[in-house]
Amino acid sequence: MNASTPPRPVAIVTGAGRERGIGRAIAERLAGDGFAVVVHQRNDDPASFTEAERASGWRGAASVVDQIRRSGGTADTVRGDVMLRSTAEELLASATALGAPAVLVNNHGTAGEANAHLAHTAPDDVWDSTIAINLTSLHRLCSVIVPALAQSEATNKSIVHFSSTAGHRALARYGAYCASKAAVEQLTRQQAIELARWGVRVNCVAPGLTPTDMIDGTLQRAADAARTDLDAIWAASLKRIPLRRFAGTEDIANAVAFLTGPQGAYITGQILTVDGGMTLV
To answer: Edge-to-edge strands of the sheet including 100-106?
Structure first.
């Protein structure tokens, strides 16, 4: 690399180790857009995978990295708990080794037993872990990675947090989930103001219903409460979406690609809802 060649921009994508996951789609899309990608997952123990993942030979983030490399991209994997500062430090070290840190996508999260508890009846451990994973972990990651983004040679730097349609509307029996995601949206606006001086943009994606393992669990709890089956809940949910289809993980990845790419370079502090119009009706 000569002095005039800019360093390769690097994107860190958390929670990207599930075969059906949004994080996987984001990591592969950003790699296709020219980013080197640090693919994070919390746990690569096969016991933590779904039966379908084990049957397919899925290896978590390692499988995502393999796909990116087969497609000619550059990627590395980091495993660890996002609540630990050491994980954030490892993510940053990996990004720095690959090039210039440019993007942090905080895709990880927990449903927190959504559809199981009223806010005041949520057990303390469920409430605390939901707030910790969905909100406090963002502070932990940013405390380590933002200073590096601020000083990075990358030309288009940004953070993308993840909320949900539950972040800007109330849903009964979602316990701490709605509260945690609403807080993420406000954190997005606050950081957009604070980090603009370093050329770091901060935005948020709020997905609608996207068939993933986490959503299957959330809707299964709704089915159990209604004494029906999961297919019936999915069918009823589809009727509430004006575009009459669920989001694909690629739809969410496209939104992230827009916000982190050159076409989104003047956008900051925004919540981009990707829900097929569901929250309009």
So the answer is: 75-79, 36-41, 9-13, 100-106, 157-162, 200-207, 271-274
The radius of gyration of the chain's CA atoms, rounded to the nearest angstrom, is 18
Looking at residues 40-68, what average pLDDT do you find?
A: 93
CA–CA separation, 238 and 256 (whole Å): 24
Active-site residue list: 174
pTM for this entry: 0.95
CB-neighbour burial class of residue 5 (10 A; exposed 0-12, middle 13-18, buried 19+): exposed
For residue 70, what are its two tokens? Answer: 């087969």
Rounded Cα–Cα distance for residues 44 and 9 (Å): 26
Structure tokens, 195: 């980090």
